[in-house]
Amino acid sequence: MPEISTDSPEEGFVISRQGAANDAWYVGRAGMQYRDLIPGRLGGRFIASHIRIPDGGETPDYVHYHKALFQMIYCKEGWARLVYEDQGPPFALEAGDCVLQPPEIRHRVLESSAGLEVIEVACPAEYETCADHEMRLPTPEVLPERLFGGQRFALHRAREASWAPWRLDGFVARDTGVAAATKGLAAARVVKSKSAITATDGGRAGGLLFLFILQGALWIDGRGQGNHQLLAGASCVIPERMGYTLRAGAGLEMLEVCLSDELSLSSSYQPKAYPRP
Q1: How far apart are the first and last CA of the chain?
Q2: Closest to 60 measured CA to CA, from 87, 24, 101, 32
Q3: What are phi and psi of 143, to 5 degrees?
């Protein structure tokens, strides 16, 4: 299991490092390989996974959906060809791109490049995956504003993104559109530094913060938790109200996912009605 830097992993500060002796991959749905980034899964509230498909080609997937409150996929390496209910023809999710999969949207992974790697963050940690053998994708309708459980599908293209100042001075970020698509339940950004930077945050008032290092190096000094170096492939969970200092080298790039109190307090899926328009 990844390193836990607290006596209370359900609530606390958690570090995961790729390549550690006790860091294991396992085979999951459709032959994909998974690495768990949050041991203990914060009392069952959240899961973060590093997922890869080493060989690529056609994926033995089927039309399915997930009974989850929140689910996003960030493409770290390679590409995957996906198709979603009411979102038009299949498309390629490429490195740097991100999708927000709203609750129970039907979808399918068609094929991928060799060496595909994605980061998935979802709530709750255990959710049901259901097959839908009746639906054929793509569907004839294209309904980009359709709501699923109060959320809409969102596709973020890295090549079309603009950068703006991040919440901590010296960093810049590109917003993935997750906050708008979930109406503030969550937010996801890619953050980078062009030079060496040190910045301090007094702590978020509510919810949870997850960081995954895409490239470069980040040192994080969590209040009362010591100073930790995170390299590419490492991740960190920062609990609410914990202050911390970040020190970044030039060339840092990381994925930041912020989850609200409403999700933080959820431990089970509660179905909602979302009829087709």
Answers
A1: 45
A2: 32
A3: -130, 75
Domain boundaries, the chain: 20-159, 164-263
- Are the beta carbons of 255 and 212 closer than 8 angstroms? yes
Say which residues have a Cβ less than 8 Å from residue 23's Cβ, sequence separation at least 6. Answer: 1, 2, 16, 17, 35
Report the C-alpha gap between 55 and 73 in whole angstroms. 20
Which of the listed CATH numbers 3.40.50.620, 2.60.40.420, 2.60.60.30, 2.60.120.10 matches domain 164-263?
2.60.120.10
In this prediction the pTM is 0.90
Question: What kind of architecture, by CATH, is found in domain 20-159?
Answer: Sandwich (2.60)
Residue 159, Ramachandran bin (φ over 0: left; ψ between -120 and 50: alpha; else beta): alpha
The two three-digit tokens of residue 92, written as one number: 């390629």
Give the model confidence (pLDDT) of 31-67 as tens digits: 778 899 987 788 788 899 999 988 889 988 999 999 9
H or E stretch covering 268:
none
